[in-house]
Design goal:
The chain has 173 residues and is an alpha+beta fold. The protein has one domain (3-152): CheC-like (Chemotaxis protein chec, 3-Layer(aba) Sandwich), CATH 3.40.1550. The chain has helices at 6-21, 62-73, 82-105; strands at residues 26-27, 31-33, 37-38, 42-50, 52-60, 110-112, 116-119, 124-125, 132-139, 142-152. Strands 1, 2, 4, 5, 6, 7, 9 and 10 form an eight-stranded antiparallel β-sheet that branches. It has a two-stranded antiparallel ribbon with strand order 3-8. Helix 1 (6-21) packs across helix 3 and helix 2 (62-73) packs across helix 3. The chain is globular, with a radius of gyration of 17 Å. The termini are far apart.
Length: 173
């Protein structure tokens, strides 16, 4: 993975956590993983497509997710209900959106997908041939692990996800 993609996500995470939850975070020791990703209790997944492409995973415990949402909305959240789920998905979306703006300034255009929220620990997600840089973002004796599986896009200038759609459906009745 190109290290130029790393700093925009670290900066965006620190800025968004400060602005949305009043949290001052710090970066832990970076890691590099090549194997499949094992999910945390809560995992927010977003894809990027364009001159930078790949997937970003935000992994955290249930307690961390509830702490973040509690700080974001100013109320004590005691269960990971639909409000908490929406808040955490949006947090991942805002961090990735801000990082994509920073990437754009550096000359890498990317469109991000809507966030997907995966609930449950130890689901396996194959990242195929993408190595992942793992960025621990630490705060309040807990933290989020941001997994960045990104590379320069193969189709430069692409701004939307592309898929093959046949011109005529091959449906037999």
């Amino acid at each position: 993975m190109n290290v130029k993609f790393l700093n925009p996500f670290i900066e965006a995470a620190f800025e968004v956590l400060k602005a949305e939850a009043g949290i001052t975070a710090e970066r832990g020791n970076l890691g590099l993983e090549q194997n499949e990703y094992k999910t945390d209790d809560i995992t927010v997944i977003l894809a990027l497509v364009g001159t930078v492409e790949g997937t970003v995973y935000f992994g955290m415990s249930n307690d961390t997710a509830m702490l973040l949402v509690s700080k974001m909305i100013g109320e004590n959240i005691t269960s990971f209900n639909s409000l908490a789920q929406s808040g955490i998905a949006e947090l991942g979306n805002v961090i990735t959106g801000r990082a994509s703006v920073k990437l754009s300034v550096a000359g890498y255009e990317a469109t991000i997908s809507p966030p997907t929220l995966l609930l449950g620990k130890d689901a396996t997600i194959s990242t195929l041939d993408f190595a992942r840089i793992v960025v621990p973002v630490l705060f309040d004796d807990t933290g989020i692990n941001i997994h960045l599986a990104l590379r320069e896009g193969k189709i430069h200038g692409q701004t939307t996800a592309q898929m093959a759609i046949p011109s005529k459906p091959d449906i037999k009745k």
